[in-house]
Each structure stands twice: as structure tokens, then as C-alpha cells.
Amino acid sequence: MTDRATPSDTYSYLGPAGTFTEAALKLVEAAAGKPWRSVNNVGEALDDVVSGRSIGAVIAIENSVDGGVSATQDALARIPGVRIVGEYLVPVDFVLVARHGTALADVRTVNAHPVAYAQTHRWLERNLRGHGHIPASSNVAAATALLDEHPVADAAVAPPGITDHHDLAVLASSIGDNASAVTRFVLVSRTLAIPERTGADKTSVIVELPSEHPGALVDMLEQFATRGINMGLLSSRPIGDELGRYRFVIDLDGHVRDERVADALLGLRRFSPRVTFLGSYPRADGFRPEVSARYSDEAFVEARDWLRAIVSGEPDPA
């Protein structure tokens, strides 16, 4: 797809063609048939959205093996005015590729993105003993570097299907150390409209602690525990202004329109000097959490009505 497009129709993704991010963008129904813009990093993708160059951007936010993607978490904390409006899960596996005529026994050095290398290093150590690792900026860049006049490595770890885009030979398939590895991608947009709740939703926030005192983290977590809210992700990232100060990237089970989630966010707002609401959106896996009766919407509404009656001087309904 070309970049010659009306900006409002364009979707950005970490390219080039053949990346896992492109595979995630293919899952976005609204992006079908629209122009796609390949970018070099998460910051550029979010800048496309903020500037209006693109209507949305797909970025990786979490991996089942390596956890949260720090570059994405830091960028979301740093760049205001964007919201997560959807998530997509992409199974992750890798192939080992080389120039035609190269045999597995010839491989002494491997070019691989650090995350890809971490997810394949056991296979590589078993099959390429004593090999050297040369880090690459992306999975596709690792493969395309093999086509340079003087390649820096003998082989590369790359996504399946890389040979659809580049003239390389596959030396080995399914070399991932974890067959069930999955990367979670999110669709980020400038829209402030929140997707309707489905009952299988997720809410993402970034929270800073008010001070470094004993129990500060527990105080924050109690905002969720006392309202029966499960956290799917709790990741700490340095704020960067001084040593020992951290912000927390948190995924909650539920939607901001769920009474328990809304009440927890109000508690966070009173507690924290800075709460960044990243969005409420449908879960990709469709999981619907079981909610105890005391944390149901009805329980919160009844409690407010009870207190309102007392304040209004009405007889205690209890």
C-alpha cells in the first residue's frame, strides 16, 4: 500500500511490510482497504496520530514472554492526546533465514531484534553452538540486512512469511522457544469517544505515586482490591526526573462505564498527583470476568441511593 493518501484515512504501523505489527493491522476491520503508512518507531507512529497524519496507529504494548513493551509504555506516558480504542493478539513465531546457498552449518553470526533473540535463544544455542548475536532495529531489518553487499551476519531471525517480501532462504522454521507466545497490540487514536462496553472490556491507565513512603504502592492497589477489580497488567517504568521515582502502567478488567471501575478511577484521582486515562476498549480474547454481587453496578447504585436518602432526610430504606 502507498503513502499517497488522505491523512484521515491512513493507519500507521511499525514497518516495513512483513512485521508482526503489520499482521496486527490486518486484524483491524476499519483499516481494511485504507492506506497504511510504515514508520520506524513507536514515537513516529504516535506523532502521526497526534498530528493528524494518520487516523490511527497500531503499536505493540505487551508480549506474553517478555511482558510490557517499555518503548510503548514510555511513549504513551509522554505523548498526550491519544486513546487506546482496540486491542489485537498476534501469535509470535520465527524462522531462521539466510542468503541462498547458505547452510545451517555455515552460520556463525545471527542478526536479530533483541526481543526476537530472547524468544529464540534456546533454539539457537542448541542448534548453533557458539554463535554470535548482532542486534537489529526490527525483525524485518534483521532479514533485509542479509541482502546488503557486505552483510554483518550469516543468518537472521525473522517473522514467518518474510520470504514473501524478500529473496531469502529459510534454514529452519518454528524456532520460537515458546509455541504459545503472543504479542498484544493496541490501536491508538485521537478520538475521545469511548467504545461502548461489551462486558468483555479492558481499561488502561498510567498512575504515579504521590510520594515514596512505606505502603504507597499498597495504597494504590487497594483502590482496585476494595472494588473487586482484577489487574491484567502492572508494569513499572521510571519517571526519569530522579532516581527511584516510578509510574505504573495498569490494565484493569472492566470498562470505565462499569460502576466499580469508575469508582476506582475516582479513588485514584484523589490519591495520585497524575492519572493518565489511556482508554476502555473491548478485549481481544473476549474474556468476561465474573463480578461478585457486591461489586455489581446495582450494588454501587443502591449504595449511592441509600446515602442520598440519608442526606435528604428521608427514612433509612434499610
Key descriptive features of the protein:
alpha/beta, D-Maltodextrin-Binding Protein, domain 2, 9 helices, 318 residues, Alpha-Beta Plaits, single chain, 5-stranded mixed sheet, 3 domains, 6-stranded mixed sheet
SSE layout and pairings?
Layout (H helix, E strand, L loop, with lengths): L10 E4 L5 H6 L10 E4 L2 H10 L4 E8 L3 E2 L1 H9 L4 E9 L3 E4 L10 E4 L1 H5 L2 H7 L4 E4 L3 H6 L10 E4 L10 E4 L9 E8 L11 E8 L7 H10 L5 E8 L7 E8 L5 H13 L2 E9 L14 H15 L7
Parallel strand pairs: 1-2, 1-3, 7-8, 7-9
Antiparallel strand pairs: 3-4, 3-11, 5-11, 6-9, 6-10, 12-14, 12-15, 13-14
Q: Could you please say which CATH topology of the largest domain applies here? A: Alpha-Beta Plaits
Percentage of residues in DSSP E strands = 25-35%
Q: Total helix count?
A: 9
CATH homologous superfamily placement of the largest domain = ACT domain
Rg over CA atoms = 23 Å
| Residues in helix, % | 25-40%
CATH class wording of the largest domain? Alpha Beta
* Secondary-structure arrangement, i.e. CATH architecture of the largest domain: 2-Layer Sandwich
Mean of the pLDDT scores?
91
Tally of strands: 15
Structural class: alpha/beta
Using the alpha-carbon principal axes, give the shape. Answer: elongated
How are helices and strands ordered from N to C?
Answer: EHEHEEHEEEHHEHEEEEHEEHEH
Distance between the termini: 64 Å
Biggest pleated-sheet summary: 6 strands, mixed
Could you name the ranges where pLDDT drops below 50 across 5 or more consecutive residues?
Answer: none
The structural domain count equals 3
Keywords: Amino-acid biosynthesis, Aromatic amino acid biosynthesis, Lyase, Phenylalanine biosynthesis
EC number: 4.2.1.51
GO molecular function: prephenate dehydratase activity
Protein name: Prephenate dehydratase
